[in-house]
Design a protein that fits this description.
Blueprint: E1 10-21, E2 24-31, E3 41-42, E4 45-47, H1 56-68, E5 74-83, E6 92-100, E7 114-117, H2 128-142, H3 159-170, H4 176-186, E8 189-197, E9 205-210
Length: 225
């Protein structure tokens, strides 16, 4: 078999961009500009540019910038989705990534993306529903033993605010004592010196931010919440 007779394989990246809005986990979708599935809501995605992208992650970074107009501080490879029937154009490979950003960051993407609750998705093209479901399962699982949800928080934040984010992602209440113990184990935060949240019915609360070492990678714990 010569190289000319080998069928071309479509190589793309798709990005599951997650955020929290009013304590609801949402995914950012974009309108497809061309066929197949023109005008359908879909994950931000695109072809891998072999001549420009050094690897698949570079492709994902470029796609997010081009389709949503933003850079995600945290971007994690999720899985690879392949097959002859997932794309009507032919046999395809899609490397999927998961990005987490605070909702305030998505203000940069106003008019370019639509936020939809992950539990109320419309029909999606290709196998994008499967990709979203895989990302949500991954995020909820890793939130049990890692610093992952912190990337959904706008800095600075209080520990009760961070706990509320964990609870929203997990979909269940978290014991306050267990949560504080887990935060100490993860050692992912540093106090903002002299910064307190005031004005509420309770005493002023210390404000925190993510330590530089964990802005683009996770802190992991051997035990879950």
């Amino acid at each position: 078999m010569t190289s000319d007779s080998i069928p071309a394989v479509i190589c793309t990246v798709d990005v599951v961009l997650l955020t929290l809005e009013q304590a609801t986990l949402k995914v950012a979708l974009v309108r497809r500009e061309r066929e197949p599935f023109a005008q359908a809501l879909a994950l931000p995605g695109g072809y891998i540019h072999a001549q420009d992208d050094v690897d698949a992650q570079a492709s994902a970074v470029r796609v997010l910038r081009d389709k949503a107009g933003l850079d995600s501080p945290y971007l994690e490879q999720l899985a690879t989705f392949t097959g002859a029937v997932r794309d009507p154009r032919g046999w395809s490979v899609a490397v999927a990534y998961c990005a987490l950003v605070p909702s305030a960051v998505l203000a940069q993407a106003a008019g370019r993306v639509e936020l939809v609750a992950v539990d109320a998705l419309p029909p999606l093209p290709f196998d994008h529903r499967q990709i979203v479901d895989t990302a949500v399962l991954r995020v909820r699982s890793k939130s049990q033993y890692s610093s992952l949800p912190v990337h959904l928080c706008a800095e600075p934040f209080t520990l009760p605010q961070l706990q509320a984010v964990y609870e929203a992602v997990l979909g269940e209440p978290v014991n306050k004592v267990s949560f504080r113990r887990k935060v100490d184990e993860l050692a992912m935060l540093e106090p903002v010196v002299g910064a307190l949240q005031t004005g509420g019915a309770h005493r002023p609360a210390q404000l925190y931010r993510v330590r530089p070492a964990y802005r683009r990678q996770l802190s992991l714990s051997a035990r879950g919440l």
